[in-house]
Amino acid sequence: MLIIPAVDIRKGKCVRLVKGKVDQETVYFNDPVQAACKWAEAGAPLLHLVDLDGAFAGVPKNLEIIKRIRKSVDIPLQLGGGMRNLETINRVLSMGINRVILGTAAVFNGELVEEACSLYGERILVGIDSKEGKVAIQGWEQVAQKGIVEFARELEEKGVKGVIFTDTGRDGTLRGPNFESIMDFLDKISLKVIVSGGISRIEDIKNLLNLGCSNLEGVIIGKALYDGSVDLKEALRLVGAKRCKQKE
Predict the structure, then answer these.
(1) Do the Cβ atoms of 129 and 166 come closer than 8 Å?
(2) Pairing of the two strands 134-137 and 124-131
(3) Measuring CA to CA, which residue among 159, 235, 242, 163 is closest to residue 203?
(4) Which of 31, 53, 74, 129 is catalytic?
(5) Where are the domains of the chain?
(6) CA distance 10 to 116
(7) Choices 3.40.50.920, 3.40.50.300, 3.30.530.20, 3.20.20.70: CATH for 2-238
(8) 5 - beta bridge partners?
(9) What dihedral angle (degrees, nearest 10) is formed by the CA atoms of 17, 59, 13, 71?
(10) Percentages helix, strand, coil for the chain, rounded to the nearest 5?
(11) Is residue 139 predicted with pLDDT exceeding 70?
């Protein structure tokens, strides 16, 4: 299982939000490149980058910072936030980003999902953000009338190989993951899954490992790393650190 630090970017800074709410923001680094370098130097196999401004605006807003991160670290990067058309996907992948994460666009534009997967295969991921079992969209400000398992199965039919499953009610809260919902989701689909939301201590990672799900690819950790309640090197030792295979 991959341990994947998150680098969330808003207004040019590395931040963490609570449940995606911009009025509950903590700034950890004035320059997100510093955060990316810190986690890369500590041994992270992959970084999860989120353009929060892009998620709300529908178009990437921090690509210059993303470019600087790409030049500063030599590990794979995945990026989400504002990926809503093929032109943007092409542009981001051409910058050297290894995997692109579709969010809102995947709910409303199945043709985009199919075309992107046809062109780029496993370099295309889809974020499934769960809010009480439904798919949250538009930077988590709205909820689509579509169940998360139903949506995942639709994505698989369109060629998607992997998804990022986030419990929006736990993200940034340090309350621990919702293991029941994670297990239920993993059991009902065959896609590779990266889970996110609520990691607060090393025991949470042990509990994810103990689920024994073969389709659990990794876990994204944000606030717990920045606050120091989870030590990245310890987490990497726990899972037996390995480098994420780059998709190029």
Answers:
(1) yes
(2) antiparallel
(3) 235
(4) 129
(5) 2-238
(6) 26
(7) 3.20.20.70
(8) 221
(9) 130
(10) 40, 30, 30
(11) no
Question: Residue 119 is encoded by which pair of tokens?
Answer: 């062109």
Structure tokens at 143: 């909820």
8 included as an active-site residue? yes
- Under DSSP, is residue 29 helix (H, G, I), strand (E, B) or coil? strand
Q: Are 49 and 79 in contact (CB under 8 A)?
A: yes
Q: Give the tens place of pLDDT for each residue, 44-103.
A: 999 999 999 998 898 999 999 999 999 999 999 999 999 999 999 999 999 999 999 998
Structure tokens at 67: 């470019």
Give the number of residues written for the chain: 248
| Bridge-based pairing state of the strands 47-51 and 2-10 | parallel
- Taking the C-alpha atoms of residue 35 and residue 119, their distance in angstroms, rounded to an integer, is 31
User: How many degrees, rounded to 5, is the angle at CA 227 between CA 221 and CA 232?
Assistant: 50
